[in-house]
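Tokens for Pyridoxamine 5'-phosphate oxidase family protein. Go.
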Amino acid sequence: MTGYTHDGPQILDADASWDLVEGTHVARLAVSVGGEPDIYPVTVRAHARTLAFRTVPGTKLATIATNQRVALEWDAVDDDGAWSVVARGTAHRLRTEHELDALGVDTEPLAPLVDVPTEDWVVVEATELTGRRFARAEP
């Protein structure tokens, strides 16, 4: 017994998916590194239908510079069951103070889970957001 119903998942519309994402900070970033898929945990700021995360120079930034197509995935288990949301889109690094000001990073800071200096901001412009909810079975 899995604890979930045998019913198919409830397909969530964009508004319901955004509501879930805006309340959750930890996601996984999926990219293609040298033609191979890879996934990284990231702390995402989802606000006003804008997705942004901070990172350090390295594989994520180098990959986004050569292949901007990415996916972000969030999931959680709550009292009602479980849910999963995937955003697909284009990522780009913010380079100017004007871009950072427009994002509002000073008014609503994002604290990463790992205490390392993460000064580079990346925005993901979501072109598709899909979500599913799985209902918990009654005991």
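The longest strand covers residues 120-135.
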